[in-house]
């Protein structure tokens, strides 16, 4: 007879998890860069799997993986869990937007909304299990990659 | 009832002659499929009619028979009924055998198109549009375009299907059957269009929010027209003479559009979105969502999420004058 409350709790738990998959479709609102570490929009983006996985997609599309692939040397490895410096969301955003060595800058090339999603993805990498990240990369194998990509059909 | 009957009939009949209908075949494969459909309709329709007639007859017989007053008794074996049932089973067996044989033969015909590999077209399904690539007959290089498939009449095209993300399905009912597009593998479908004209293709496997807006136009050309079209697709984009359009060119090829789109011959080299080199020559934008016009282009750039909610095209905020210039440039990309 204890089965029923446990089942009810389980169902509630599963339903609560759906929130992280929630996505909003409809007209786009104007977007601005995060205005500090306490910006309330940061939490919304970071808690949404949809936003993070969209960011992962753009990570592939814009060729970020060429230098920042899993296991890249030194500071290029964005998922390196042993790194000491813990940077805030807004700092990571600014780093991507004004990425050194890129011209024209990503701030001019990539729309603000996508920069938010990219940042959410990059932020998620540190706590992402390496096996899962490999799996994610595999799922995106057919997606466009940088400017030299020639299609998934070879 | 009557108010809806006439429009209903008209709509049903319109379905028979449409640009996206298996009942209006314009190619060898579609013709074979329609033949099979007709055979199936006749056989299944005949069997259905027979069932209804026998059911009616038995109801009629039961009503006509007087109700016995005494307690029901075990009836003697009806030899006529037993024979009838055997004949019925034989009829079902024969009908199914004919259908299976016909289906097998049509499948074989679809898989063995003549003139094999005369023209290779690579089609990639994306959420939610189609990337199309043709082999340049002179150099063997690939010529890319999007959302508008051109095919020469009377020549077999081998369409190689790949997916960039999820499972899609390639379906141009007027020209050929249907083939799934599976990530990580290449499926092939041969099509031999015979009649020139415009048709419509559509993704036929649910692939996400905007599955319904993942269509493409299909143009079957005379072979000479097709060669001309391919030659013009091969050319890089021309630099517009008009000053406004030239300003639009700077906006498109140096701004955020260039992150995802290619305009060959300019700095726009993004690979994730549809090729825009000859966008102005296409009929529709956003994978068959809108007819191509300057207004539609402006709307699509400013607020794609309102037109196609969930699309991966981001909204680009431009000043009205800049949006007009960009749309003028894109429209001039012929």
Give a brief description.
The complex is a heterodimer of chains A (154) and B (334). Chain A has 154 residues and is mainly alpha-helical.
Oligomer: heterodimer
Shape descriptor of chain A reads globular
Percent of residues in helices of chain A: 40-55%
Number of helices of chain B: 8
Cα distance spanning the termini of chain A: 58 Å
User: What is the structural class of chain B?
Assistant: alpha+beta
Number of strands of chain B: 12
Specify the structural class of chain A: mainly alpha
Query: Architecture of the largest domain in chain B in CATH?
Result: Sandwich
User: How much of the polypeptide of chain A forms β-strand, as a percent range?
Assistant: under 5%
- Overall CATH class of the domain at 41-139 in chain A: Mainly Alpha
Strand order of the largest sheet of chain B: 3-2-1-5-8
Could you list the spans of chain B in which at least 5 consecutive residues all have pLDDT below 50? none
The major sheet of chain A is characterized as: none
Unreliable stretches of chain A, pLDDT < 50, 5 or more residues? none
Query: How helical, in percent, are the residues of chain B?
Result: 25-40%
Corresponding CATH superfamily of the largest domain in chain B = Cupredoxins -  blue copper proteins
Q: DSSP strand (E) fraction of chain B?
A: 15-25%
Let me know the largest β-sheet of chain B: 5 strands, mixed
Quick one: how many beta strands of chain A? 0
């Amino acid at each position: 007879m204890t089965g029923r409350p446990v089942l009810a709790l389980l169902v509630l738990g599963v339903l609560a998890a759906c929130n992280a998959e929630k996505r909003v479709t409809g007209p786009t609102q104007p977007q601005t860069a995060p205005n500090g570490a306490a910006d309330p929009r940061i939490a919304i983006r970071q808690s949404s799997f949809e936003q993070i996985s969209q960011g992962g997609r753009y990570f592939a599309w814009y060729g970020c993986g060429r230098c920042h692939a899993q296991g890249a040397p030194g500071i290029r490895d964005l998922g390196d869990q042993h790194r000491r410096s813990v940077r805030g969301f807004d700092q990571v955003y600014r780093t991507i937007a004004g990425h050194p060595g890129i011209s024209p800058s990503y701030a001019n090339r990539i729309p603000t909304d996508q920069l938010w999603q990219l940042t959410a993805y990059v932020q998620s990498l540190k706590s992402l299990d390496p096996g899962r990240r490999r799996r994610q990369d595999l799922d995106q194998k057919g997606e466009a990659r940088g400017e030299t990509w020639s299609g998934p059909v070879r | 009832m009557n108010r809806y009957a006439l429009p209903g009939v008209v709509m049903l009949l319109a379905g028979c002659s449409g640009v996206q209908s298996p009942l209006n075949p314009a190619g060898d494969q579609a013709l074979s499929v329609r033949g099979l459909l007709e055979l199936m309709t006749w056989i299944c329709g005949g069997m259905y009619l027979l069932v209804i007639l026998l059911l009616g007859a038995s109801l009629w017989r039961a009503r006509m028979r007087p109700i016995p007053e005494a307690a029901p008794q075990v009836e003697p074996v009806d030899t006529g009924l037993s024979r009838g049932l055997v004949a019925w089973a034989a009829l079902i067996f024969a009908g199914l055998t004919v259908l299976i044989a016909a289906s097998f033969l049509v499948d074989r015909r679809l898989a063995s198109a003549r003139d094999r590999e005369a023209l290779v077209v690579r089609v990639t399904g994306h959420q939610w549009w189609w990337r199309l690539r043709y082999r340049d007959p002179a150099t063997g290089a690939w010529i890319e375009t999007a959302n508008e498939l051109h095919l020469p009449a009377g020549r077999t095209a081998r369409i190689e299907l790949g997916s960039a993300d999820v499972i899609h399905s390639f379906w141009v009912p007027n020209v050929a059957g249907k083939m799934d597009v599976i990530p990580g593998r290449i499926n092939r479908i041969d099509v031999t269009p015979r009649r020139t004209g415009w048709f419509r293709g559509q993704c036929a496997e649910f692939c996400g929010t905007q599955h319904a807006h993942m269509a493409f136009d299909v143009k079957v050309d005379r072979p000479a027209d097709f060669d001309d079209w391919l030659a013009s697709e091969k050319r890089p984009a021309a630099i517009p003479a008009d000053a406004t359009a030239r300003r639009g060119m700077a906006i498109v090829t140096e701004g955020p559009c260039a992150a995802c789109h290619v305009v060959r011959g300019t700095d726009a080299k993004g690979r994730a979105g549809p090729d825009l080199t000859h966008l102005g020559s296409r009929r529709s934008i956003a994978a068959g969502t809108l007819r191509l016009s300057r207004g539609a282009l402006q709307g699509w750039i400013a607020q794609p999420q309102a037109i196609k909610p969930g699309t991966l095209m981001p909204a680009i905020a431009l000043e009205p004058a800049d949006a007009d210039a960009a749309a003028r440039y894109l429209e001039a990309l012929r």
